[in-house]
Amino acid sequence: MTAAVQLWRAADDKITPNEWNADIVRDARAKPPEDHLVPKAGHFDFIAPCSEALAKVAAEICTTEPGFDRAALPQETNKAIVVMFFEAKLRSP
Q: What is the pTM of this model?
């Protein structure tokens, strides 16, 4: 595969640790991907913050470790994905 790839990994993923998942994808590419390791992020921190109702029935996917701001992550990823990656890698010359 020669397409440009941007890889986002959670530094504290206890469900699918990077060495069993994302690191394999990263290391298997002939051309290294643009790699982002998000400090303090857990497995479910890449989904939107949960409503109170969802948190009551799905605590596992709604719990974020202290010191990580789940609500702020989309601001960082959206900018990096849309502005810095799509526009830089996919714009026609």
A: 0.81
> And the tokens for 3?
């397409």
Q: Is the dihedral of CA 74, 79, 80, 82 positive or negative?
A: positive
Taking only the tens place, the pLDDT of each residue in 29-50 is 888 898 999 999 999 999 999 9
Q: SS in 3 state form for 13-68?
A: CCCCCHHHCHHHHHHHCCCCCEEEEECCCCHHHHCCCCCHHHHHHCHHHHCCCCCC
Domain ranges of the chain: 6-90
Could you tell me which residues are beta bridge partners of residue 6?
34
